[in-house]
């Protein structure tokens, strides 16, 4: 039976550990995997803009001997032209997998139900699993382990936060989510991560206090306004500015490293000087997007 990757919520700790190990092995031994997708084609549907996800999937698939077709829904020619189920069923007639970046998670569920091939979530309103895998690969390489680390996410509780929570809990990584009041992560996802964490030893804390991030090994932040959110920056800036990840926050918390999925907004959610500092893992995360996704496709396509 085909498997999709829409969220990590239904994965076991062992399965995610294996995927992380596969990503690391594939990164270290690229020649051994140069043909695992030979003759395979991936259709990539993007309802929203992308730099990292689009390019890392395309180049990554190419490095595995496969081929990616990019479908641009932003131009408006595809969006709304037919139902999601029909689009997915058609794509599955030719493609061996579908990668999709969509506004609504429900669209991914429709894709997955209608397509006879694996569907990979390349970001939706609720999750960004490919990002989380790259981030834990980055922490794994940097610290030599993920289990027992503490990651403190500071900023808007969003799709990136949710996937970090679920994947982190599965991997035994303690999570502190620090948001302004009213911008907390989805309580149902926090609850799910807490339940997973009870089995893996990961603690999950949702708070509005920066001081709760003291002792974290690494801080993580993301944009205050996700794609599709047209709230004017001026109306939220005052609320979020105390949560800016900067040198002072690194010193107060004692965190050694900083992560950000990017695109980053210099001197808003993170200072430009911190992005450019030796504490920044941003480019390693970006690099690892490709290795994580290559492992996902290799796993899902049984290559
Ligand atoms: N981090 C990330 O998903 O970047 P893009 O939006 O550029 O793909
Ligand atoms: N939370 C951001 C992530 C971008 C990669 C967004 O959804 O726009």
Automatic annotation (TrEMBL):
MF-aspect GO terms: amino acid binding; ornithine carbamoyltransferase activity
One Pfam family here: OTCace_N
TM region(s), chain numbering: none
InterPro entries, A to Z: Asp/Orn_carbamoyltranf_P-bd, Asp/Orn_carbamoylTrfase, Asp/Orn_carbamoylTrfase_sf, Asp_carbamoyltransf_Asp/Orn-bd, Orn/put_carbamltrans
Gene Ontology biological process: citrulline biosynthetic process; L-arginine biosynthetic process via ornithine
Keywords in alphabetical order: Transferase
Annotated family: Belongs to the aspartate/ornithine carbamoyltransferase superfamily. OTCase family.
This protein's name: Ornithine carbamoyltransferase
Taxonomic source organism: Salinimonas sediminis
């Amino acid at each position: 039976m085909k498997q999709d990757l829409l969220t990590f919520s239904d994965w076991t700790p062992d399965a995610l550990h294996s995927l992380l190990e596969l990503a690391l092995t594939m990164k270290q031994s690229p020649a051994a995997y140069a043909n695992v997708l030979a003759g395979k084609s991936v259709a990539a549907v993007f309802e929203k803009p992308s730099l990292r996800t689009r390019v890392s999937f395309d180049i990554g698939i190419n490095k595995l001997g496969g081929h990616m077709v990019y479908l641009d829904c932003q131009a408006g020619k595809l969006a709304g032209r037919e139902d999601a189920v029909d689009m997915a069923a058609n794509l599955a007639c030719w493609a061996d997998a579908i990668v999709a970046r969509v506004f609504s998670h429900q669209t991914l569920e429709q894709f997955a139900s209608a397509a006879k091939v694996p569907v990979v979530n390349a970001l939706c309103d609720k999750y960004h699993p490919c990002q989380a895998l790259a981030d834990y690969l980055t922490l794994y390489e940097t610290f030599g382990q993920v289990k027992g680390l503490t990651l403190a996410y500071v900023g808007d509780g969003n799709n990136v936060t949710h996937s970090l929570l679920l994947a982190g809990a599965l991997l035994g990584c303690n999570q502190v989510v620090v948001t302004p009041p009213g911008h907390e992560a989805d309580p149902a996802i926090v609850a799910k991560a807490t339940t997973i964490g009870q089995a893996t030893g990961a603690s999950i804390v949702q708070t509005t206090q920066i001081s709760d991030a003291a002792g974290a090994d690494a801080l993580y932040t993301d944009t205050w306004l996700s794609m599709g959110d047209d709230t004017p920056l001026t109306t939220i800036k005052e609320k979020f500015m105390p949560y800016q990840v900067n040198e002072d926050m690194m010193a107060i918390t004692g965190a050694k490293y900083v992560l950000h999925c990017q695109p980053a907004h210099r001197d808003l959610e993170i200072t430009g000087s911190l992005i450019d500092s030796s504490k920044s893992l941003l480019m390693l995360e970006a690099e690892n997007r490709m290795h994580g996704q290559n492992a996902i496709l290799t796993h899902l396509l049984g290559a």
